[in-house]
Automatic annotation (TrEMBL):
<dbReference type="InterPro" id="IPR016914">
    <property type="entry name" value="TrmL"/>
</dbReference>
<dbReference type="InterPro" id="IPR029028">
    <property type="entry name" value="Alpha/beta_knot_MTases"/>
</dbReference>
<comment type="function">
    <text>Could methylate the ribose at the nucleotide 34 wobble position in tRNA.</text>
</comment>
<keyword id="KW-0489">Methyltransferase</keyword>
<dbReference type="GO" id="GO:0005737">
    <property type="term" value="C:cytoplasm"/>
</dbReference>
<dbReference type="Pfam" id="PF00588">
    <property type="entry name" value="SpoU_methylase"/>
</dbReference>
<dbReference type="GO" id="GO:0141102">
    <property type="term" value="F:tRNA (5-carboxymethylaminomethyluridine(34)-2'-O)-methyltransferase activity"/>
</dbReference>
<protein>
    <recommendedName>
        <fullName>Putative tRNA (cytidine(34)-2'-O)-methyltransferase</fullName>
        <ecNumber>2.1.1.207</ecNumber>
    </recommendedName>
</protein>
<keyword id="KW-0963">Cytoplasm</keyword>
<keyword id="KW-0949">S-adenosyl-L-methionine</keyword>
<feature type="binding site">
    <location>
        <position position="132"/>
    </location>
    <ligand>
        <name>S-adenosyl-L-methionine</name>
    </ligand>
</feature>
<feature type="domain" description="tRNA/rRNA methyltransferase SpoU type">
    <location>
        <begin position="4"/>
        <end position="144"/>
    </location>
</feature>
<comment type="similarity">
    <text>Belongs to the class IV-like SAM-binding methyltransferase superfamily. RNA methyltransferase TrmH family. TrmL subfamily.</text>
</comment>
<dbReference type="GO" id="GO:0141098">
    <property type="term" value="F:tRNA (cytidine(34)-2'-O)-methyltransferase activity"/>
</dbReference>
<dbReference type="InterPro" id="IPR029026">
    <property type="entry name" value="tRNA_m1G_MTases_N"/>
</dbReference>
<dbReference type="GO" id="GO:0002130">
    <property type="term" value="P:wobble position ribose methylation"/>
</dbReference>
<feature type="binding site">
    <location>
        <position position="103"/>
    </location>
    <ligand>
        <name>S-adenosyl-L-methionine</name>
    </ligand>
</feature>
Length: 156
């Protein structure tokens, strides 16, 4: 059973997406790519970062976020990540798994999403004055906290 779905909204850097894809294979997660993408999924940089794991990845592409939400309706198991959030990800209840959303490397998630789902939006702790950390690093930190809480790692 898949515990987490990683949702990348309009990712721009193929190497980040490749690394996240590899992480998803290693943790038995599903990767969702929301268009428009800043790269082609056939790009060699994407495949190189994903190494030989890409062929084992459960990855789906969606034309836009609304199409994704039609298939996976929003509920409390959808968690949004932003440096603009007020709550740390340690306070989220990931015990049942869920959908972890991350925005573009250069802009993050849309401001309207952050406003509409503020109660489901979290940030990673960072020192003041630091704008952000790498997307793949952020996904990894959030996902491993989710795995710790949910104990889905025990199936590995």
């Amino acid at each position: 059973m898949t515990s987490f779905h990683i949702v990348l909204v309009e990712p721009q850097i193929p190497q980040n997406t490749g690394n996240i894809g590899r992480l998803c294979v290693a943790t038995d997660c599903v990767l969702h790519l929301i268009h428009p993408l800043g790269f082609s999924t056939n790009q060699k940089e994407l495949k190189r970062a994903g190494l030989d794991y890409w062929q084992h990845l459960q990855v789906y592409e969606w034309e836009h976020l609304e199409a994704f939400w039609q298939h996976y309706p929003l509920n409390m198991q959808h968690f949004f990540f932003s440096t603009k959030a007020q709550k740390l990800h340690f306070s989220a209840d990931f015990s049942q798994g869920g959908f972890l959303y991350f925005g573009r490397e250069d802009a993050g998630l849309n401001a309207q999403i952050l406003k509409n789902y503020a109660h489901q939006t979290y940030k990673l702790p960072m020192k003041r004055g630091i704008r952000s950390i790498n997307l793949a690093t952020s996904v990894s930190a959030a996902l491993y906290e989710g795995l710790r809480q949910s104990r889905f790692y025990e199936q590995f």
